[in-house]
Write a structure and sequence with these properties.
Layout lengths: L4 H12 L5 H40 L11 H10 L9 H14 L27 H12 L12 E7 L5 H8 L6 E3 L6 H18 L3 E7 L4 H21 L7 E7 L2 H7 L4 E2 L20 E2 L7 H13 L4 H9 L1 H14 L3
Parallel strand pairs: 1-2, 1-3, 3-4
Antiparallel strand pairs: 5-6
């Protein structure tokens, strides 16, 4: 049975009073509904963004992350997951990234709270300039009283830290500096130039400190690449040393501090499923819980946990009783240096 167009049109006119036919009325009604729905979605999105911004601000400025400044956006992301503010859904990392950008722009988050060492930034250091020679000498004398003996002096092992995540360097340095352990960011597959510089430094370390071994404490993602990088890196450094300095007695020991499958499972860290299986099978890669498609990023572990693990790794090879007598003589050496420098001004 065909509908009565006259009746439909009359109903439309009665309801609106301005439509020529029922089709025009129906189109307008649908358009209004879509407009309301769009407005509702926009409003809901803005409210969700505002909520996430408050949550991120509380995380970075609060007890969760404040003492570990600067932190990376990825560390903020995983901390937000731990607190249940977001899920591992598609686009959630970008939401956190956007929230951080807004918070920094409007002053709710200090610019120094977030680190981004993945990009090269121009270095501005005006404090290194001096007014004249007398000013330069005064600075040297003032700093002479704070000169310290390297804490790795006379230790059986010389230690250094290499971390895959550039954003974690500052947090690891907070621990490493107490032992004068250098901390370097590799940022994934290390360039040949950096490997050569590391090899060159290790030859120098061997000559000056004469350690039994050089320990590389490595921190990186637990994924097929992250497992292979430190192994191949140490092998390449050894090859360079053997080629350029064949008489050097450098011996390298690799100690993986983070991450491992056990650490991930014990701490119930947030894992991610890879979109594609590893290109090459490796006996070093077993995945997480037997699933080779699961991986975990280093930033998933809280900075405090990473610091504890790093400190334990360093102390396992560090003998404080060796440094104690050196530290006792440190003040005497500082006084001698200041006296010699002051004699130059007389």
């Amino acid at each position: 049975m065909q509908p009565n167009n006259k009746i439909i049109t009359e109903r439309a006119i009665n309801l609106q009073g301005t439509y020529d036919n029922s089709l025009e009325f129906a189109i307008e009604q649908v358009s209004e509904k879509r407009t309301y729905k769009t407005q509702d979605r926009v409003l809901a999105k803005r409210q969700a963004e505002a909520t996430l911004q408050r949550q991120v601000s509380n995380l970075v400025n609060g007890p969760a992350l404040r003492e570990f400044w600067p932190v990376s956006v990825r560390q903020v992301y995983y901390t937000a997951i731990t607190h249940g503010y977001i899920t591992k859904g598609e686009g959630d990392y970008e939401r956190v990234q956007d929230a951080v950008a807004v918070l920094r722009a409007d002053g709710r988050l200090d610019y120094e709270a977030i680190v981004d060492n993945s990009r090269e930034h121009p270095r501005c250091n005006f404090e290194s300039t001096v007014e004249n020679a007398d000013d330069a000498l005064d600075r040297v004398i003032n700093e002479a009283g704070t000169v310290k003996v390297n804490r790795q002096t006379a230790q059986p092992y010389f230690q250094l830290i290499i971390t895959e995540g550039a954003g974690t360097v500052g947090q690891l340095e907070d621990v490493a500096n107490a032992y004068d352990v250098p901390c370097i960011a590799s940022q994934g597959w290390t360039s040949i130039s950096l490997l050569y510089q590391l090899a060159k430094q290790m030859v120098w370390i061997q000559k000056v400190f004469k350690p039994q071994d050089i320990i590389i404490h490595y921190c990186g993602d637990y994924d097929p690449t992250g497992v292979q990088v430190p192994i191949k890196m140490c092998a390449r450094i050894t090859d360079i040393i053997n080629q350029k300095w064949p008489d050097s007695e450098v011996s390298i020991i690799l100690n993986r501090v983070a991450l491992s499958e056990k650490q991930i499972l014990d701490r119930k860290l947030t894992v991610q499923r890879m979109s594609k299986p590893p290109k090459t099978a490796s006996s070093d890669w077993t995945g997480v819980g037997g699933d080779i498609m699961l991986k975990c990023e280093m930033e998933a572990i809280h900075p405090s946990e990473l610091q504890k693990m790093t400190r334990s790794a360093i102390e396992a090879f560090y003998k404080p009783e060796i440094y104690a007598p050196i530290a006792a003589a440190e003040e005497i050496e500082q006084h001698r240096l200041v006296t010699k420098l002051e004699s130059l001004t007389q």
